[in-house]
Design brief:
With 416 residues, the protein is an all-alpha fold. The chain is built from 15 helices and no strands. The protein has one domain. Helix 1 crosses helix 10 and helix 2 runs antiparallel to helix 5.
């Protein structure tokens, strides 16, 4: 099992390294071509994309957990039933988001002081596909088909990179970049949908099962809202409170600093269905939490070290000298992200067990970050220090809560 976990995690990690590299290239090219002011608008759309994962991720996580549970018994009928329900939910929410972003595009433009409303409309049109691809990925994750799951992320990245950069090169500027993002959703959904095969024709689950899924999805939604606030509220608030040039520089800072979170995402993705299955069987799984924390720490420490020793060189190499104003904050932002990556491991470990109460700490941290930045934004340094303080507190509380709940290495206990 340990070899299987390591192998699956390695496949995803290698794939996500390539994906993250491609996404970085995408952002680096746009940052250099467009300059800090216009890059701030592109970064705004990318941040809104990450905000939408507030809904996409719960769909994927809920699907993954219940597919994983039923895959233990190879109950294909139950798996197909869950798949059908989550597809309908994803499509319904996607259409609502489409209306919000397309019809409300002028309001979004005015609020964020953006250059045009068109990118918001283009983005909105693709959101139903974004939610549907989350459902299909949930099935693949729950079945522990990590190879195919990795391919879907490759498709998303390469479509975004090639089409987005190509359209910008042809003179479509910000709209071209957003078009590349939107089309990547469509391409990914097609590939993931084709990969989910072998499930029989299904009917919707009975009311009891629907309620059970909803009760699990709700705290996951809360957790994701906290994650969205933690990962993205700073970029949105900086865009609101600071001039466009400083907001663009901060967007570059956030992009570099978050490398830890995205580099360790594959660890959480691999751990989640395996822990759920072992918990279902009554097997030990506490060691997987510590193994995952160790891997994340092993990735985080070198990143923080490099950003401490060579901040100017890193910023100049990746974005150019016009972004050097935030180089001194790079190590601090990387530290904040590392602390949150560790906290995210603990939260997802508990969610895989069906233990959902710890998600309240995440939403509380997200709200505190928003309030903290609103109150303390005299400088970009203040904005980053707020995040360091909150993320260190969140990680300590979550780890302490897990230890107090007596969950480590004790499977099969009821939710605490």
């Amino acid at each position: 099992m340990k070899r299987s976990i390591a192998s699956a995690s390695l496949i995803l990690m290698i794939s996500m390294t390539v994906v993250n590299a491609g996404n970085y290239v995408y952002n680096l090219i746009l940052g250099r071509w467009l300059g800090p002011a216009l890059f701030a608008d592109v970064s705004l759309i990318i941040t809104l994309l990450l905000v939408v994962t507030f809904i996409t991720a719960p769909l994927q996580i809920t699907t993954a957990r219940y597919i994983a549970i039923h895959s233990v018994d190879q109950d294909l009928a139950a798996m197909a039933s869950i798949h059908k329900l989550m597809q309908r939910v994803g499509l319904a929410i996607g259409l609502v988001l489409l209306a919000i972003f397309t019809l409300g595009a002028p309001a979004w433009k005015a609020f964020f002081q953006a250059e045009s409303a068109i990118p918001f409309m283009i983005f909105g049109l693709a959101l139903p596909f974004s939610l549907l691809q989350g459902v299909e990925r949930g099935v693949l994750q729950g079945q522990t088909r990590f190879g195919i799951l990795a391919i879907t992320y490759q498709v998303e990245m390469w479509t975004r990179l090639l089409l987005g950069i190509g359209l910008v090169a042809l003179g479509f500027s910000i709209s071209g970049a957003v078009m590349g993002i939107s089309l990547s959703f469509v391409a990914t959904w097609l590939v993931a949908r084709l990969a989910v095969s072998g499930l029989p024709k299904a009917v919707l689950p009975v009311r009891k099962i629907q309620v059970e899924l909803g009760l699990f999805a709700l705290p996951v939604l809360v957790s994701q809202l906290g994650q969205i606030l933690i990962n993205n509220s700073d970029v949105l608030l900086v865009r609101r409170f600071f001039p466009a040039t400083q907001a663009g520089q901060y967007a570059a800072l956030a992009l570099i600093g978050r490398i830890v979170f995205f580099a360790t995402w594959s660890v959480v993705t691999t751990m989640f269905p395996i822990v759920a299955q072992k918990h279902k069987k009554g097997e030990a799984h506490g060691y997987l939490l510590w193994l995952s924390l160790g891997i994340v720490a092993g990735i985080s420490l070198p990143v923080v070290g490099l950003t401490t020793l060579f901040p100017n060189q890193i910023v100049t190499l990746l974005f150019g000298k016009q972004y050097l104003g935030v180089a001194g904050l790079l190590w601090l932002y990387a530290l904040a992200t590392s602390l949150y990556a560790m906290a995210n491991v603990v939260v997802n470990y508990r969610l895989s067990l069906g233990a959902t109460k710890s998600t309240g700490f995440v939403i509380a941290a997200g709200v505190c970050q928003v309030l903290g930045i609103i109150l303390f934004h005299a400088s970009l340094a203040q904005v980053v220090w707020v995040q360091v303080a909150i993320m260190s507190t969140l990680f300590i509380i979550l780890l302490g809560y897990d230890l107090m709940a007596n969950r480590v290495a004790k499977p099969g206990l009821p939710d605490q």
